[in-house]
Amino acid sequence: MLFLSAVPTDSRKLERLVGEIAFQLERRILFHVFPGQARLYGFTVLNIHEKIIQVSRHPLTGKVDEAYRYQLSQRHMELMNKLHALGYSATLHGPFAEYIVNTYGILKQRPDPYSAEELGYNNPEFLRNVIIKIAPSKLLKDMLCLFSCLCFMARQDGKPLFLW
């Protein structure tokens, strides 16, 4: 594809792109489970159960909204069941995604809207090739699993792969 030639090819930026894929999946999962949360600071896939408890408790009275807690838990369980069908395991891939983000980093700045760079970042074929090029063989299978889950979630919600 012609526009992919405008996507940067320096190895550090491509490494950050691998980290961004893991980060974007984490965000996508969190936004799915907590659709009403404006900010997700401190929320991770690893602490999602504690955050469900936290956000379903009234901050002043401490009273638990059991219906809301149940709704969030159901959203989480249903999503994990769908992702599990793609090979995702929360106990493995939650820490793995965190490791990938910490190892490779994330993109330092968003690409310009409608630029070739942004189009490349939302092109599954391009991103899969970046993963294959950058990820060491021992991480490749799990990185491709994260990527498959991100692609699945983007198809489900009809949004681009990367949400800026």
Walk me through what this model shows:
The chain has 164 residues and is an all-alpha fold. It has one domain. It has seven helices and no strands. 26% of the residues are buried. The N terminus is likely disordered.
Q: Main sheet, how many strands, which sense, barrel?
A: none
Helix/strand-derived category reads mainly alpha
Euclidean distance between termini CA atoms: 23 Å
- The domain count comes to 1
DSSP strand (E) fraction?
under 5%
Order of helices and strands: HHHHHHH
Q: Rg to the nearest angstrom?
A: 17 Å
Q: Unreliable runs, pLDDT <50, ≥5 residues?
A: 1-7
Number of strands: 0
Q: What is the share of helical residues?
A: 55-70%
The outline comes out as globular
Q: How many helical elements?
A: 7
Q: Averaging pLDDT over every residue, what do you get? A: 92
Summarize the structure.
This is Speriolin C-terminal domain-containing protein. This protein has 164 residues and is mainly α.
Observed structural traits:
164 residues; mainly alpha; 7 helices; 63% helix; globular; disordered N terminus; Speriolin_C; SPATC1
Topology record:
Elements: H1 11-33, H2 48-55, H3 66-84, H4 90-104, H5 116-121, H6 124-134, H7 137-157
Helix pairs in contact: 1-4, 1-6, 1-7, 6-7
